[in-house]
Amino acid sequence: QSIEALDRQGMKTIESGDLLSFKKYLSDTSNTICGRHPIQLLMATVEQAQVKAQCQFVHYAQSSQCLTGKDSSVSYASGVYYI
After folding, report:
1. DSSP codes of every residue in 11-67
2. Which of 15, 19, 65, 78 could bond 43 through an S-S bridge, CB–CB 3.0 to 4.6 Å?
3. What percentage of the chain reaches a pLDDT higher than 70?
4. Is the pLDDT of residue 67 over 70?
5. What is the pLDDT of residue 1?
């Protein structure tokens, strides 16, 4: 549940479209989002293009539920950008 809460916080930050907030989230949480660099590039491109865009996450899943501190899990999220 704590992993999902952390992931959903990151997803909400991405949906906000605020690149600096997303960078701060990554720095503050050390969440290892595999697509963080392409996501930041997309956010910066939208920002620089000065277009009105909206990101919405449409699906979230985890590979497994962690029951102990030794377990691991991979999270998957699908998002869509509307311009």
Report:
1. HHHHHHT-HHHHHHHHHHH----TTHHHHHHHHHHHHHHT---EEEEEEEEES----
2. 19
3. 92
4. no
5. 76
